[in-house]
Amino acid sequence: MAEEKVDIGITVKKSDDFSEWYTQVIQKAGLIEYSSVSGCMIIRPWAYSIWEKIQVFFNKEIKKRGVKNAYFPLFIPESLLKKEAAHVEGFSPEVAWVTHAGDSKLAERLAVRPTSETIMYEAYSKWVRSYRDLPLRLNQWCNVVRWEFKNPVPFLRTREFLWQEGHTAFASQKEAEEEVYDILDLYKRVFEELYAVPVMKGKKSEKEKFAGALFTTSVEAFLPNGKAIQGATSHCLGQNFAKVFDIKFLDDNKQSQYVWQNSWGLTTRSIGIMIMMHGDDKGLVLPPKIAPLQAVIVPIFYKEKDKVLEEAKKINDLLSTSFDVELDSREEYTPGWKFNEWEMKGVPIRIEIGPKDIEKKQVVVVRRDTGVKSFVPVAELQNTITKTLDDIQNNLFTNAKKLLDSNTVETKDWAEFIRAIKDKKIVYSPWCGESECEECIKDKTEGAKSLNIPFNLPKKITEVCPQCGKPAKVWCYFGKSY
Amino acid sequence: MAEEKVDIGITVKKSDDFSEWYTQVIQKAGLIEYSSVSGCMIIRPWAYSIWEKIQVFFNKEIKKRGVKNAYFPLFIPESLLKKEAAHVEGFSPEVAWVTHAGDSKLAERLAVRPTSETIMYEAYSKWVRSYRDLPLRLNQWCNVVRWEFKNPVPFLRTREFLWQEGHTAFASQKEAEEEVYDILDLYKRVFEELYAVPVMKGKKSEKEKFAGALFTTSVEAFLPNGKAIQGATSHCLGQNFAKVFDIKFLDDNKQSQYVWQNSWGLTTRSIGIMIMMHGDDKGLVLPPKIAPLQAVIVPIFYKEKDKVLEEAKKINDLLSTSFDVELDSREEYTPGWKFNEWEMKGVPIRIEIGPKDIEKKQVVVVRRDTGVKSFVPVAELQNTITKTLDDIQNNLFTNAKKLLDSNTVETKDWAEFIRAIKDKKIVYSPWCGESECEECIKDKTEGAKSLNIPFNLPKKITEVCPQCGKPAKVWCYFGKSY
């Protein structure tokens, strides 16, 4: 068994070589396979089913709010993509271009969508005529392509990824802005309640906002390797795109008005954040709410095989009604091999059952997060599993929150700011908010960016910006970021 | 109200100008919008939610069978696509090619996937080592692109479409073939039980089989305009791809073997088939099992508005627990306008409630398929709705089945064969099965193709092929087809 463990286990510690650890986990846990197109990854079933759980939650929430799912074309004609100047500037360096179909050269190049504002808003201008047509709230789940030339990192930075993109149009700025924050709260819930990853809500700086937006809000997380990462974004586009795409409506006074628009997106990057956050030296650790399996049952049948298997099936039937559970009855693997495999795959709870347990009418319950083992009477099993899954979910979140809190440094002092960034911390600091100053911060800290500006700032800010000495307008989070 | 009706109604009869009728229905019912990329359509929420219902059913069924969902890259390097000779010959005339990313020319052209055999099987060869790794059964829901140069027909023939593609590998031919037929049965159920469209199961001719397959099975439908159409296909790929992509396993005798593979797909084309089948001169007619809304409640409030609205809300709450139902309480539209709109959108049942109905503790229930109106006591409403939805589902299927049966001509005579094709019928005829003969049939009938060869053929076929006079090997369906 020791031999098997070496074979399938992670060969480096997370704390020693984070990057190699991650590369091994995503492959050995069966989440990712590399493809022959550089930067494009295969999302294997174990990872894809996490995405499906996110979809179920998110679809339910947005449908409750009146958002409807649709599907818009993958291809965007070059002329259409270029209609909004700031937007095309942000995206065109990364666009994959289709130039030929079969043997024919196309009359106009087609962009493989990096995002769908332009192709969608062209249609919105046909659909919106009157205030009766508003709000128009659509979402699509799809693939997008951004041909980055930086090193790919599976889930976090890949040339193709999956996401949802919501695109909405409202009659008033007020309604639009309310939605921006409402969806941002939903993203916070996805990260905190499902992925057990604490995030900071806030507004992006002018420099970091979405290409073409009035303002961008985001949730940001902090990873155990000392890097911050943007989790999801909810943009208020204002009337920028409405003016370019001529999306107008007659209000109830028969006046022609431009709509107010938002767009908001959550990507498969979120899976990578969760993996990095919770995984340990044995592999993946999954929060129960998004785990493809919440518990796995491993029968221990050195002897009395039939009897043990029969009992294990009963346990499986008992739990299947309430949990995602699987009985691993494979005979070609030893229990020890299975323990290692399911630990690698991060299943929250392992249930062992052998001849002695059957005698005692109990099973062994092992938690993936803490490794704690307990003997549980079969009669109490359902309640114990429910409680233990809750405990695991909370424990993962609490640990991640401690990590975030203990790595956030609040300072007004420039020397401490620089030192904290060097120590791989997040800095919370007063700031003038100017893009020029942000450039200086980046240069002087070897790469720290503004993450976001929280919404619950003090009414009056009396501090000065530690970098430039001008009066601070906001408090802002800074850090080195993916 | 007459004015409004003209404005939103279909202006041609289905029987007079089928093509124009279809074009109007898909737009006026809010299913499709054209985009600025020729041949690429926007699938609007009303159509997309039908697709979501298909996904729920199909996912449940395949997951029950042990198939898992995954996601493979959109792009396939040219060299990879070209590995299987028959396969590339079938697809390359329709491939959209990515040649540039940003300002850089790519070293190798990338195909936008027309189907994913090659990109998936490259990975399968890494994953399959031993009989323990089999069966390997994956599915993905995604977009694919086939740059056809024929006229696009929304849903039926578009350059980008959505589908599921299942790709599986087995240790034995027997297991693989069993799956081919099992999945074909599932497709039959999708068409017959959900879409209420009767289909013919069978095997494709050599000429019409999938590029690279050992054999192809299909379900075929017959449309009211006299055209047949392929509904979905389930292919046995044999060991063709396994040999090209070197997908081998050690069997339990430690012998190296090639796997047996299948692939199978169902596309958004199926939505178009359903629309064409059931729609009428008032617009779309939706089978209850895939309707985004099964019933709509229209309050009639010329007077006593608050009271009517309150009762309507009660009815809505009552029905919401069991059905997909919506209360259309919009005040800016008249009841007549709403009737027309919901008829256009094909909602199976309309429930009207006005002051007089409230007095009598009843509502008016109107069926979309027959137009039949009945007064139903509120106390009986849930049962009546359940029963009526069943009736509508069955009625639509029965009508479509009659259409199919009355348009299928069984003949052994060549003159009758030609006449029947000219009369826009399906022909069921003995056949030699040869590709050369199939070409002759196509020429002599101005376009009829073999549809498929049913599985339940008589053991001994004594007839001759009516076209070429050679001994028939099978009976086969022929028709003009999309």
Describe the structure.
Chain A is of the alpha+beta class. Helices cover 36% and strands 26% of the residues of chain A. The first copy, chain A, contains 15 helices and 23 strands. The first copy, chain A, has helices spanning 2-8, 18-28, 45-64, 78-81, 85-91, 117-127, 173-194, 240-245, 269-278, 305-320, 335-344, 355-359, 381-406, 414-422, 435-444; strands spanning 32-34, 41-43, 68-69, 75-77, 96-101, 104-112, 136-145, 160-170, 200-203, 215-222, 228-238, 248-250, 256-258, 260-267, 295-299, 325-327, 349-353, 362-367, 373-377, 408-410, 426-431, 449-450, 474-479. In chain A, the strands form six sheets. A seven-stranded mixed β-sheet of chain A has the order 3-7-8-14-11-10-9, with helices on both faces. A five-stranded mixed β-sheet of chain A has the order 16-15-17-18-19, sandwiched between helices. A four-stranded mixed β-sheet of chain A has the order 20-21-23-22. In chain A, β5 (96-101) and β6 (104-112) form a beta hairpin. Chain A is globular, with a radius of gyration of 25 Å. The relative contact order of chain A is 0.12. Residues 1-6 of chain A have low confidence and may be disordered. At the A-B interface, β2, α3, β3, β4 and β5 of A face β2, α3, β3, β4 and β5 of B. β5 (96-101) of chain A pairs antiparallel with β5 of chain B, so a sheet runs across the interface.
